[in-house]
Write a structure and sequence with these properties.
Layout (H helix, E strand, L loop, with lengths): L1 H19 L21 E2 L3 E5 L5 E12 L14 E13 L1 E4 L4 E4 L5 E2 L18 E4 L3 E10 L6 E5 L5 E6 L1
Parallel strand pairs: 1-11
Antiparallel strand pairs: 2-3, 3-4, 4-9, 5-8, 6-7, 6-10, 10-11
């Protein structure tokens, strides 16, 4: 009986491991918004109506994207990937409490790879005022910059994601 139980346990582990599939790499291609298909990109400077995970709504705008060859402040390190892309973001909440986080902003390079504040030396860039973290209630807004360590050059798109990483807004230069 022990051999049968051990064999069954091994089979279940193998089936479970293969069913999970590989995890996406950092910098993988972007996902589209859950249930809504691809997100159409606006131009930088245009407001985009977005809906968060819990149904909260907002108008999000990427106001500008500027490149910098170095960070700011004493702790700043040089960008590991080529440049810091400093993205100025404004979010005006129109309904509910909208969740905001610099990690929800991504830079998509010309080759399709995406970068966020977890890549390269982004966390040491030191640009301010940084986009806030937390829930912003209806009728209020927040604005700040997100610095991302990216390859040199213009982005293919800047993406805004929800908590789950689904793209809910996109902007092109």
């Amino acid at each position: 009986m022990r051999k049968g139980t051990a064999g069954l346990a091994l089979a279940l582990v193998l089936v479970g491991a293969t069913a999970c599939g590989p995890l996406p790499d950092q910098g993988s291609a972007p996902s589209s918004a859950s249930g809504s298909g691809a997100v159409t990109a606006a131009k930088v400077g245009q407001a985009v109506k977005v809906t968060g995970d819990d149904g909260a709504t907002a108008e999000a705008t990427v106001l500008s994207v500027n490149a910098s060859s170095k960070g700011q402040g004493d702790l700043a390190q040089a960008p590991a990937n080529g440049q810091y892309s400093v993205i100025d973001v404004e979010i005006k909440v129109t309904g509910g409490t909208f969740q905001v986080n610099p990690l929800y902003v991504r830079y998509q390079a010309a080759d399709g790879k995406t970068y966020d504040q977890n890549t390269g030396n982004s966390m040491t860039a030191g640009f301010s005022p940084e986009l806030t973290v937390g829930g912003v209630p209806s009728g209020q807004s927040t604005r700040g910059v997100v610095a991302i360590d990216t390859p040199a050059g213009q982005p293919k798109a800047i993406q805004l994601t929800n908590v789950l990483g689904d793209v809910i807004g996109a902007w092109q230069p």
